[in-house]
Specification:
single chain; about 170 residues; mainly alpha; 5 helices
Length: about 170
């Protein structure tokens, strides 16, 4: 139970900073307020953002329940997490976060938030390649290497193909 509390605390702090505070600052600096009407773009943004939030929360709970850890680099899972959304892609949490931010950019029709989404995705990719993957290889060795062979970093194609072959 304590691991779930830790995971939710870290997730709330991360979400508060990355999804609420920084985008709010960008919108404020750009002079963009809440749209006066809710049109198709706002509805699309809410749907995309909602899908991203569901994926991110699924990842947080999977880390806590299966990995016995959190998404925070200083309190990582104790077991390699390859279940839940991680059976489709190796980095679903970043995909969920990107969708959440993209949903906000669409909702507000904001170029500055769109640029922020791109910067976030680039930063996530660099973090994955230069920190997470080497750390996971060191921590989980052959088990992680086998997982990398089965599951794509960002695109689920290999996993879906792999599941079809093994049926």
């Amino acid at each position: 139970m304590f691991v779930i509390a830790r995971a939710l605390t870290y997730a709330a702090l991360f979400i508060g900073l990355i999804f609420i505070y920084l985008p709010g600052q960008l919108l404020s600096w750009a002079g963009i307020g809440r749209p006066t009407v809710t049109g198709p773009l706002q509805i699309a943004g809410m749907i995309i953002g909602g899908i991203g939030a569901v994926i991110a929360l699924w990842c947080v709970f999977t880390f806590a329940a299966i990995g016995k850890g959190t998404p925070a680099p200083f309190d990582p899972p104790r077991r390699l997490v390859i279940e839940g959304p991680y059976r489709f892609v190796r980095n679903p949490m970043y995909i969920g976060a990107t969708l959440g931010l993209a949903g906000s950019a669409i909702f507000y029709g904001s170029l500055s938030l769109s640029i922020y989404v791109g910067a976030f995705l680039l930063a996530a990719h660099l973090f994955v390649v230069f920190y997470e993957e080497p750390t996971l290889r060191k921590s989980f060795g052959a088990e992680y290497e086998a997982y990398c062979q089965r599951v794509g970093r960002w695109v689920p194609g290999r996993t879906l193909f792999h599941l079809k072959i093994n049926r």
